[in-house]
Design brief:
Pnp Oxidase, Chain A; 7-stranded antiparallel beta sheet
Length: 143
């Protein structure tokens, strides 16, 4: 394995990871964290997408401060797990065509009206720094 971290390597390690922890700056100044479905089957290209609601605290947090962090962890045996931290800029998208592009049927559990759910919002996170810890090695990629 090369010492240089590539986006392809990060994408390969993210494959199959379904849950990301989205961290935002809360309105009172603290850090707020919550699990978000990452849809682990999506090919990662440095941009992540998550569905939420206009009423969710993460939405108002992002409106106030769009710099966010994402945390990922694979479940492997000790020494075989991979941990990924992403820093990026979040954008709130309220466009039906974007909803259609990123929707998966697994999301129907959370949003019973699908892409027609009132107040639906798509959170886009464009990474600008990624750190990965695997096999006792820490590497970083700045995008």
């Amino acid at each position: 394995m090369s010492d240089k971290l590539t986006l392809k390597h990060v994408a390969d390690e993210m494959k199959g990871i379904d849950i990301a922890i989205l961290s935002t700056r809360a309105s009172e100044g603290g850090i707020a964290c919550r699990p978000m479905s990452n849809n682990g089957d999506v090919e990662y290209d440095g941009t992540s997408f998550f569905f939420s609601s206009d009423q969710a605290s993460c939405t108002s947090d992002i409106e106030g401060e769009p710099l966010v962090a994402l945390g990922y962890s694979s479940s492997g045996i000790i020494g075989g797990s991979v941990y990924i931290a992403v820093e990026g800029l979040a954008t709130l998208i309220r466009d039906r065509s974007a909803f259609e592009k990123h929707w998966t049927t697994e999301l129907d559990v959370w949003f019973e009206d699908g892409i027609d759910t009132p107040g639906l919002v798509l959170i886009q996170v464009k990474a600008h720094r990624i750190k990965i810890w695997e096999r006792n090695k820490e590497r970083e990629l700045v995008i």
